[in-house]
Design brief:
Layout: H1 12-37, H2 43-50, H3 54-60, H4 64-85, H5 93-108, H6 112-121, H7 124-130, H8 132-147, H9 157-177, H10 182-197
Helix pairs in contact: 1-2, 1-4, 1-6, 4-5, 4-8, 5-8, 5-10, 6-9, 8-9, 9-10
Length: 204
């Protein structure tokens, strides 16, 4: 008589870890969606969107601040991926910067409310620190443009990064206030940044 074979079940700790990972992913997705549309979204609302009970959120994120920090990190990661996808290392620096700014803006456009929330709750220094992964994508491009003489050399790289970051934030604030539409803000923001950092003759 043939021996009956059984497929061994996955160890319980691994199953629990996989379940926890799925819960965290669902909570981060729901948190990003909810906070982008309403920065005052409650933990209950985020739990509802994630398809979990509120207690599950607190298992992974013991405070609202912890959840906000995690959602911010998640959002920054999405922007960084969009920037990488725009290939900042490829092509002429001015065209590359325009391409990266456009990709950055179109990803950021999904969560203007979250940017407003983080700007309000974090110090300027802390907000800058958490944005470093995005600035790190731009820094080599700015350096390359300066070496080629198409970006101004009388300004430091750090200043030009600060100008670009500040103007992106300003454009986001104009949209939130209703003073500009997204279709207006994108070209104005990009052209203002390029005008600020390109050398004379650097733009065609």
């Amino acid at each position: 008589m043939a021996k009956k074979t059984t497929t061994p079940e996955a160890p319980a700790p691994k199953r629990r870890r996989a379940d926890a990972d799925r819960s965290v992913a669902a909570i981060l997705d729901a948190g990003l969606e909810a906070l982008a549309s309403d920065p005052e979204s409650s933990m209950s609302e985020i739990a509802r969107r994630a398809g979990v009970v509120r207690a599950t959120i607190y298992v992974h994120f013991p405070t609202r601040e912890a959840l906000l920090d995690a959602v911010m990190e998640y959002a920054v990661g999405q922007v960084v991926e969009a920037m990488r996808g725009a290939e900042p290392q490829q092509g002429e620096p001015v065209a590359a910067l325009e391409r990266v700014l456009r990709a950055t803006w179109r990803q950021l456009a999904q969560f203007h409310g979250l940017l407003a929330l983080n700007t309000a709750r974090l110090s300027a220094e802390e907000l800058h620190r958490r944005h470093l992964p995005m600035l790190d994508q731009l820094e080599p491009l700015i350096e390359r443009g300066q070496k080629q003489g198409v970006f101004r050399r009388d300004q430091s790289v750090s200043w030009q990064l600060a100008v670009a970051r500040s103007l992106v934030h300003a454009a986001s604030a104009e949209i939130r206030s209703g003073r500009m539409r997204d279709s207006e803000a994108e070209p104005v923001m990009i052209s203002t940044i390029l005008d600020a950092i390109c050398s004379t003759g650097g733009r065609a």
